[in-house]
Design a protein that fits this description.
Elements (H helix, E strand, L loop, with lengths): L13 E3 L1 H9 L3 H7 L4 E4 H5 L4 H6 L1 H10 L4 E3 L3 H12 L6 H13 L2 E3 L3 H10 L8 H5 L2 H7 L1 H13 L10 H8 L1 H4 L8 H14 L4 H6 L4
Parallel strand pairs: 1-2, 1-4, 2-3
Helix pairs in contact: 1-11, 2-10, 6-7, 7-8, 10-11
Length: 224
């Protein structure tokens, strides 16, 4: 599964939300992925600030972003006065957004850039403000053709798995079957963030257990 051609644009700058950076760090290939993307990448100052807390410093997310900035792979951008007004609107009116999402959308809307956001509420509000620049997902970065070409097919699949397992990356429902096929059913069981995870991997196991059939037997029995 590659990023669809409709999701590839080489003109617009992209603006990353906090969760996207977390996914890129978790996938273990984040610097190489962003280096391979042909678009200029912006990170709002507010998003950068969300990675300054103790947990992000301990797990390496803070240093990951600092290295991206030092290597000029991404640029940190502050809000203009006009963007501050959009930010305040997005954080104070229902459904309100968290600061990182709001800053990402404010910059994208003001400068007509492409936001990269995974959360449903943020994507909905970004779509309303930017109907011609609908937001990308983290998945679009990981499955971008230049990224796959740079990492190699297997490393790109491994990056996807780690982003799902360790970053708890959100993906669109319609991509779930393709993603599971890519990383395999066995590794997909590690990724509890997958859409419909319970229905796919737990409900059948629970029903089998209640019927006196072991989960191992269900997983290994040959189809008839």
């Amino acid at each position: 599964m590659n990023c669809s051609s409709s999701r590839i644009d080489i003109v617009n700058q992209w603006v990353l939300d906090t969760s996207v950076l977390i996914n890129l760090h978790a996938c273990k290939y984040g610097e190489r992925i962003l280096s391979a993307i042909p678009n200029d990448i912006l990170v709002p100052e507010i998003v950068a600030g969300e990675l300054e807390h103790e947990r992000s410093r301990k797990n390496g997310e803070y240093n990951f972003l600092q290295a991206l900035v030092a290597d000029r792979i991404v640029t940190v951008a502050g809000l203009t006065d006009a963007e501050e007004l959009i930010f305040q609107e997005l954080t104070s009116t229902s459904p309100s957004l968290d600061d990182g999402e709001a800053a990402t959308i404010a910059i994208a809307a003001s400068r007509q850039l492409r936001p990269v956001i995974d959360e449903r509420r943020g994507r909905t509000r970004a779509g309303a403000l930017l109907p011609t620049l609908l937001p990308h997902w983290s998945l679009d970065l990981l499955r971008h053709p230049t990224v796959i070409a740079t990492l190699g097919v297997q490393n790109a699949v491994d990056a996807l798995y780690h982003a799902l397992r360790d970053g708890r990356m959100r993906i669109p429902l319609e991509s779930a079957d393709d993603v599971i096929a890519l990383i395999g059913v066995g590794r997909s069981r590690d990724c509890t963030c997958l859409p419909g995870y319970r229905e796919r991997f737990l409900d059948g196991r629970n029903r089998s257990t209640e019927a006196g059939i072991s989960p191992h037997h269900v997983a290994t029995a040959a189809p008839r």
